[in-house]
Amino acid sequence: MSTTTDPVRLIADPGRPESERALLQLGADIAPPRDAEARVWLALVGAIGVPAAAGAADASTKTTTTTTTTTMTAAKAKAGLTAVKIAAVVATLAALTALVALGSYFVGAVKGPRSPESVATAPAAGTPVQPAAVAEAPPPSEDAPPPAEAAPARPAPGPRRPARDQRRPRAAADPSTTAASPAPRAASSGVGRCSVDVPFAGSVAAVGASPGSGVEKAMSITPDGRCRCFPGGRTGRPRAARVSAAR
Amino acid sequence: MTFEEAYRAHFAFVWRSLRRLGIREEDAADVAQEVFIVVHRKLPEFAGRSKLTTWLYGICFRVASERRRVVPRPPLGEQEAASFIGRQLDPGALAERHQGLALLERVLDRIPDEQRAVFCLFELEGMTGEEIAAALELPLGTAYSRLRLARVAFSAGVAELVGGREPRAEKRGRSV
User: Contact B174/A56, CB-based, under 8 Å?
Assistant: First the structure.
């Protein structure tokens, strides 16, 4: 392989010391380990995306195609992940919005604006309603949950159930409460006198309060078949009232 | 030639070139991977004006030089090298062959990199002066000059390690 100008190689020069030739022969016989080629190829596949099983016919095209495909797949996967993230964020926001709307609805239901009708219709003449005897908040019972566990503006229904049960026969005796009635919708608050004006056509209407708190005096059935409640206390302190109607 | 064809055909060449350029056995796989990453990137630019091995060796030389600059080789102990010289030619001794390779590397390490590349390509790879000049982008006269200087350094290194002592005649032969 040498040209005319190339000198004789040391390894083939018998005039050179044997140690030099032996060392050079060792250097000429260097070969990679058996599995080195496969290991490096696998590493290359991982590093630059060369297809491991590419044929010899059009390896470069396959390489380009595979690399492009890999890149597109990665991009799609990334885009898919991004879409999933966006969808999750949107769903979370929607859920939060729904929760806020629901909470606003209930808060509005409890502390909603006083209807003009109820404001204007202070206890009508002839009705047995006495605002001064409006039911007061029930004293905390012993078996009631602690304040930290109970909702502050919503009394626990447990202790009040007997109260409704006690008033049910009285309300049932009223002939104007024979028809089915929709659920009460509003509780009002105000200064001095609070009233709840509830469309009432059912059999029983009650203000959530403990027995003996005078709630029955705070209720009235208006001539047009509506239940009027005055959940404000004697002090006139606005307070949420819970009005229920049993069909 | 495609990348895979080039890899299959010249992996051994790249491997032994890296080893002769001073890359350790345990590092050769990593450096070979670096070489072929460069090959994969630059293969479309290869115009074919020279042999592919010539072009590959240029890449090997640059990658190995950078590797040796970052990770210098620890020197081979004098005792280890001297002990090998007297036993290196025992046939069939794989461990001694490894020692012989280590000794060769030590001798080659004494040669400057530019001269070493020319020396290895000419003496171990069997390239011609013109091919070496093309691979290393050198004038032909420079390639021969470096070869001459490298030969002098190689002989001096071997003589120093052997201590002027030649192996016994009955132990001569290939150790592979």
Answer: no
Q: Which helix (H) or strand (E) holds B31?
A: helix B25-42
A31, B97 in Cβ contact below 8 A? Answer: no
For β-strands A196-199 and A226-229, DSSP reports them as antiparallel
**Alpha-carbon span A32 to A199, nearest angstrom:** 94
A145 membership: H or E segment, kind and range: none
**Which pTM does this prediction carry?**
0.46
From A22's Cα to the closest Cα of chain B, the distance in A is 7
Helix (H) and strand (E) counts in chain B: 8, 0
**Residue A223: per-residue pLDDT:** 66
A44: nearest CB among B33, B89, B124: B33
Query: Taking Cα atoms as reference points, which of B30, B4, B14 lies closest to residue A40?
Result: B30
- The residues that bridge with A220 in the sheet, in sequence order, are A228
Taking the C-alpha atoms of residue B92 and residue B161, their distance in angstroms, rounded to an integer, is: 23
Measure the CA–CA gap between B159 and B151, rounded to whole angstroms: 12
Query: Mind telling me how many Å the CA of A32 is from chain B's nearest CA?
Result: 6
Type of residue numbered A113: P
What is the value of ipTM here, to two decimals?
A: 0.71
B129 contacts in chain A (CB < 8 Å): 2-3, 5-6
Residues 6 or more apart whose Cβ sits within 8 Å of residue B151:
A10, B119, B123
For B1, name the nearest residue in chain A, comparing CA atoms only: A60
Which residues of chain B fall below pLDDT 70? 72-94, 162-176
